[in-house]
Amino acid sequence: VQLQAFGGGLVQPGGSLRLSCAASGLDFGIYTVGWYRQAPGKRRELVASLTSGGNPYYDNSAKDRFTISRDNAKNTVYLHMNSLKFEDTAVYLCNAATGPHMHWGQGTQVTVSS
Question: What is the phi/psi pair of residue 29, to 5°?
Fold first, then answer.
């Protein structure tokens, strides 16, 4: 199983980014997929998740700014991030989970700076 995240970068406050996470080696459609982030010195936190049935969850910090989506035909989960703030700076990691199975991708760095 492999999850590969990409799309991070340097963006100014108020800007937008789209993160992608491509999965392989698993039955992607049955998994709940999610994006976590971890800033230096802070705990890893769940930003957004999306069940196999299409039900989303957003952390309060992400509501109204971020949108999680998935394309099961491409085995890919996306995180569209708008109105980015300094405090969104972190390494973003994708995750896929079902039952006892959980898989992590490597992180992609998002830096919000002027």
Answer: -65, -20
